[in-house]
Amino acid sequence: MTAEDNRSRTPNSSQFVEYMGSGWAPNNAPLPEASQAAHFAALRRAEVSKRFAGHAVVLEAGGMKTRSNDTEYRYRPHTAFAHLTGWGAGTVPDSVLVIDARTVPHTILFLRPTAGRGQTEFFSNNMIGEFWVGSRPSLEAVSALLGIETRDIAQLPEFLATIPAESQLSLEDSSVLEFCAELRLVKDSYEVQEMRNAVAASVAGFENIVRELPNAIGHSRGERLVETAFFAKARELGHDLGYETISAAGEHACTLHWIINDGPVRNGDLILVDAGVEVESLYTADITRTLPVNGKFTPLQRKVYEAVLEAADAVFAMAKPGVTYSQMHDTAMTVIARKSHEWGLLPSGVSIEESLEADNQWHRRWMVHGTGHHLGMDVHDCAAARKSQYKDAVLREGMIFTIEPGLYFHADDLLVPEELRGIGVRIEDDVLVTATGVENLSAALPRTVDEIEAWMASHRH
Q1: pLDDT-derived band at 206, boundaries 50, 70, 90
Q2: What are the C-alpha distances in Å from 154 to residues 49, 59, 64, 261?
Q3: What is the rounded distance in angstroms from the CA atom of residue 282 to the CA atom of residue 197?
């Protein structure tokens, strides 16, 4: 007996198919207007055409990913595909974009069109049938939305057969993946606005966390109450989470990517929350706040928090066009090294300058990660870019990245005083490079101790 025999079967006789296809109201919906992203996506495709003149670049959106058996994860297309089409959360799985720059550049988007209610796919295919997964757009509708010529995905093999293999490039070619990543390093005005939207939704998520914190105190899995408070706003105001939320209370805050979130939230502890909302266009925020669970920092918690804030503020003060990523990191590390020295954490006799030497870095025991990263459609955006264009490159107006220093004293770290053990603090903001410096896009969330305490009190009434 097959697994199919254990489930209900839908008839597929001609009379049943005819019956299922009849009696439906006509779809008279007008074609959509061009999306706000369409113009900007066309400019990006033009850059691809210039870079890969004489070739056809084939970019796959990718298919659904199986979670278990016949259930799938929520769909998200490949970032390069979304960036070059302007199609976000509404992308039809398995679509393919072809930027043909062999002669006169032109673009074709291949996708699976809606089958229509007179076909068995409509009611019998639980993967793509509209009876199961909802309506899919017509070729005409997608073309109107994105300003791209569209064709049935069934025509793709025949079309690609007309292009010599040596003229075809894809995301498997490192030069294509690299170029697509570097194309996202500087954001256009549409992208900046989408990032503002993602940050605004994330701010609402953090406000919801503060309202939920009293309920989390004493709960055996209080971290998950905090996690879901943010997720509720992500689904209400955006598309999804940009990444798995880190909800790390007490000593869990010292685990940099703590996403298990199964621990309690205790009165008197700190909770580190690293979270971001991904909006429908697939741009995501990435913000971290470390909050006192009961709304008040202890003197020791304040001491550690303000040291991290000093490191972050030092980067804010020097970040501007012409400064490199490496210089920003070095600026934060200088503060972390100085604090480590002041608190007697460095090895005996080691100076701040000695700790900052490349082969030493003793202070990095308590901050092993970088000070920031590019941000956009991927939470760690532009990751495939060349080092010369990322870490060693100078900042340019329109770049968006994070500033996120931290200090993490593990509960079992015998090299720090006992009173520091189990304290972890990170402060992360999303910033836009302007002509003269940087704008803190996440400034609506308080950063100083006094501001945080007042803000938490205001959201608990």
Answers
A1: very high
A2: 25, 16, 18, 44
A3: 11
Output the CA angle 116-119-122, nearest 5 degrees. Answer: 70
Beta-sheet pairing, 287-292 with 423-426: unpaired
Question: Using 50, 70 and 90 to split pLDDT, how confident is the model at 7?
Answer: low
Q: Which residues, listed in sequence order, are joined to residue 68 by a DSSP beta bridge?
A: 71
The separation between the first and the last C-alpha atoms of the chain, rounded to the nearest angstrom, is 60
425 in helix, strand or coil? strand
| pLDDT 10s digits, 130-140 | 888 888 899 99
> Domains (ranges, CATH) in the chain?
13-182 (3.40.350.10), 189-458 (3.90.230.10)
Percent of the chain, pLDDT > 90?
A: 87
CB 392 within 8 A of CB 275: no
Distance CA 405, CA 314 (A): 10
CA atoms within 13 A on the CB side of 418: 0
pLDDT surpassing 90 at residue 258 = yes
Phi-psi region of 10 (alpha: psi -120 to 50; beta: other; left: phi over 0): beta
Q: Assign 133 to helix, strand or coil.
A: helix
Distance (Å, whole) CA 104 – CA 347: 65
Whether pTM exceeds 0.90: yes
Whether the per-residue pLDDT at 1 is higher than 80: the answer is: no
| 279 Rama class: left (phi>0) / alpha (psi -120 to 50) / beta | beta
Q: Which of 231, 108, 222, 223 is nearest to 158 (CA)?
A: 108
CB 248 within 8 A of CB 424: yes
